[in-house]
Every structure is written in structure tokens, then in C-alpha cells.
Amino acid sequence: MNCVEMRHVRLEVDGRRYLDGVSLTVAPGEAVVIAGLPGCGKSFVPRCILGLPGMDADEVNLQGDIIVAGQRIGDLNSQELQALRRRVGSVMRDGGLIENMDVRANVTLPLTYHYQNTLGPAAIQARCDAVLEDLQLSRLGAPGIRPVALNREERLYVSLARAVICEPFLLLFDEPCLGLSPGSARRLSDFAFSYQPAFATALPQEQGDWASLPTRIVTTADLGRYLDRADRFILLHDGRLEVIGDRMAVLGSHDPRVRQLLGKEFNPGPSAPVMTEAIDG
Amino acid sequence: MLIQSLPQLQGVGAGEFIGRILVISIVRELGPIITAMVVITRSGTAMAAEMATNRITGQVEALEGMGVDVFHYLIAPRVLGAMVSMFCMIVYFDVVALVGGFLVASLRLTMPISVYMEQIAGSLQPLDLYISLSKGILFGLVVSLFSCYHGLRARRAPFEIPMVARSGVIQAMFFVFVSSAAISAGFYWI
């Protein structure tokens, strides 16, 4: 069973079409990067997977099938959607931290909301300590440190800690490294693609559990940052997804759009082939 | 109110009605309405602005993305809190207003304390308390719901925060006045 499957998805938000017949299949444990220029609508891919295609829009028109862990998002009622979302971690562009809660409460929020009765407060705090220590954020776990006191990098790490604390089978990142210095972005992307916390106490087994490393989907406008980390690279252009391939395919591509996302100038040769393969329906 | 009305009533020999007038005007009508105005201006605006900020900064989306029910997590506690606090504040308001009348009656006017107390106690009926407190619970419910609803209507930019806060305040005030009149009229007919 695929972890994520999108079939012929069309999305219009406030009259503007962002996804135009997009199809995508992501296998369990796969790390996929979806790249596109700013404003192309790549942020809507993780939002559609979460069932939140346009929360800040007046008019949203979504067509097609989005299937996550074998469940069709459009067929789920609110309880089923919540049950699915609690096993999907997401790191949005600005972290999405709850400003009136301190860092510790932010990190433990999904656990206290979903697993308070099954795990208990001690196990929840132990999980929080473990994640913060792994991410070298233990100093932020002191009571009373609120998100407003954090810089952008720290906010993203706290958001990552919150995303992984429920051991998600799917992790979604929306431009996680945007605005970070190169060193900070490298460190964060290392964690994003390889970090898997180990906890002393296990969560209750649920349908949709995946034993391997979580599936990861990252959107970005900077392909080069993830070349050594992702299994597959996909280009979003004009509302359509086109598979570029693996790292070597990206580096060998003469497609000007790919070169632009790599931050390299395009100098078309006489027989420069376009390496992309259309997969949208 | 006591200073204005008591001399007039005593002048026409109707001073014994002051207790009933105070109970009806303060406990039934002014208590719930003035308390609701205080809660709307003090807490309703804050609730609407907070909800709008949560929405605009992506906090609501983050909660939804974690599988957190926004109504259960953000709205229900505020609604319950507003209902309980409105109920308690009306009790406080009524007690303070009647004690204030007591002080005025004892210090500035010619009504003996014992007479004032007798009139209040004789005029205060269970129905007065039912009306007052049911209004309090209803006003707490609608003030918080209107504030949260309008706050969550904000979409994109911080300039929407005062706009939605204003909408929440105006609609809550309108509902409070209309429903107060309807409830009072309904109980009188009953």
C-alpha cells in the first residue's frame, strides 16, 4: 500500500488554479522533494494531504482523489480525519507554534491532546525531554519560554520536535529551510530527513502504523539543499507535477526550470534534452 | 437610581415600592445587561482578536494539522468560561448594586435600614433570580460564540483583526439587547 497517492487532483483557490490534474504516488519510507518556483502552489500539496487545502481562502474547489495510508481524505469524517492527522507530522513554513503556550507545552501538545489517558503525564514529559535533547534544545524546555522568545531556526526545531513526538508515519515539510543561513539550513535538513526518535514508552498500536523510517515529503524552491538526502525529486510547474528523478537526474538535467531551482544559470546546448517525465493525468 | 427615585416615590406616598423597583431594574434588567457590556468590551474583543491572530498566524491551521479539534480545544473552553464568569459577575453586580442602595439609603436618605432590607427581601422572588441568571448564562454563551466566530473569520492580514473584533462586539451587543428584551417580555407574559 502506498503511503500517499494523489489522483488527478485539481485545486482552485479563490479562482486561481494551483494544481491541474496532479497525480503522485509516494511509497512508504520514501523521501520526496517537490520543487517549484515561489508562488507555484507547492505548499498546497502537503495541505491537500492533510485535508487542509485552503483554510485561509474564501473559495476552494478541490477535485480528484487524495489517499493517505489507504484512506481517501474526501471520504473521512472529522473524527477519522483527526485520527489520521495525529499520525502525520507537519512542519509549516513559520513553524506554526502556539504563541500563548511555552515551548514544552507546544512540543507535548499533540501527545497531551491525543494520548493523555493512555501515556500519562510522566511518559509525555519523558518523550518531550528525549526529543528536545536529541535536537539539542534542552535549554528551551524550561517552563515559561514562549515562542516569541525564539529565533526562526529555533522555532522550526521546536516545530520539528512537535511533529515527530507522536512517531508519525508521514512527515510533511513546507519550505523548512526558507530564510535560514546555509549552515542552519543544512543542519535542519539533516534532522528533517534522518532523525527518528527512540522513546522508552510506545504509543498504542493503531491502524496505519509503519515500521520503517517515516515517509517524508518536502516542498522547496531550492533543490540543491536536498540533493544528497531525498530519493526522488519532482517539479511542480504550471500546476502539473513532473518527475525529475533521483540526484543524478537532477544534476544532469538541462531543463531550465530545474537549473533555476538549483540556482544555476541555464546555458542551453545544441542537444540539451529535457530530463523530466510527465506523470500528471 | 435610589437617589433619583426614592424622593419622588416618597413624595407621592409610594416609598414602599422602592424595593420592588430596585429588584426589577437591577436584578432583572440592568445587572445582566451591564455585566454583558463589561464582558463584551473587556473579554469579547480580546477573544475575537486572539482568535483572529491565531488564524492569521497559522496557529489554527497547525492545530487542525495535528488532529486537534479547534472547537473542542479553542472555542468550547472559552464558551464555558464566559458562561460561568458571566453568571458569577451578575451575582456580584446584583449584590454590589443592592448594597450600594443600602448605603445610600442609610447615609443620604430618610429610609431606615430595616425598612430597606425588608422591602428588598420581600420583593426578591425566585423568578427574579431565574431571569437574571438565565440571561447571564445565555449572554455568556452568545458573547463568546460571536467573538470566536468573528475572530476565526479573519483570513490573511493583521488589518482584519480590529475589523472582526468590531463585528463581534456589535453583533454581541445587538443580540444582548434584543434577547434581554425578549426574555423579560416572555417572563412577564408567563
CATH class category of chain A: Alpha Beta
Q: From the coordinates shown, what is the CATH architecture of chain A?
A: 3-Layer(aba) Sandwich
How big is the Rg of chain B? Answer: 21 Å
Q: What do we call the CATH homologous superfamily of chain A? A: P-loop containing nucleotide triphosphate hydrolases
Order of helices and strands of chain B: HHHHHHH
Number of helices of chain B: 7
Describe what is shown at a glance.
The complex is a heterodimer of chains A (281) and B (190). Chain A has 281 residues and is an alpha/beta fold.
Give an account of the 3D structure.
- The complex is a heterodimer of chains A (281) and B (190).
- Chain A is α/β, with parallel strands linked by helices and 281 residues long.
- Chain A has a single domain (4-199, 212-254), classed as P-loop containing nucleotide triphosphate hydrolases (Rossmann fold).
- Chain A has 8 helices and 11 strands.
- In chain A, the strands form 2 sheets. Chain A has a 7-stranded mixed sheet with strand order 6-7-8-3-9-10-11. Chain A has a 4-stranded antiparallel sheet with strand order 2-1-4-5, with helices on one face.
- The two termini of chain A are 21 Å apart.
- The model of chain A is unreliable at 266-278 (pLDDT under 50).
- Chain B is mainly alpha-helical.
- Chain B has one domain (17-185).
- Chain B is 85% helix and 0% strand.
- Chain B has helices spanning 2-11, 18-56, 59-65, 70-107, 113-123, 126-152, 160-189.
- Chain B is elongated.
- The A-B interface holds A 50, 52, 55-58, 78, 81-86, 88, 90, 92-94, 96-100, 109-110, 113-114, 162 and B 50, 53-69, 73, 155-156.
Architecture blueprint of SSEs:
The complex is a heterodimer of chains A (281) and B (190).
Chain A: E1 4-13, E2 16-26, E3 31-35, H1 44-50, E4 60-68, E5 71-72, H2 78-85, E6 88-91, H3 103-119, H4 121-134, H5 152-164, E7 170-174, H6 182-194, E8 215-220, E9 232-237, E10 240-245, H7 247-252, H8 256-261, E11 277-278
Parallel strand pairs in A: 3-8, 3-9, 6-7, 7-8
Antiparallel strand pairs in A: 1-2, 1-4, 4-5, 9-10, 10-11
Chain B: H1 2-11, H2 18-56, H3 59-65, H4 70-107, H5 113-123, H6 126-152, H7 160-189
Helix pairs in contact in B: 2-4, 2-5, 2-6, 2-7, 4-5, 4-6, 6-7
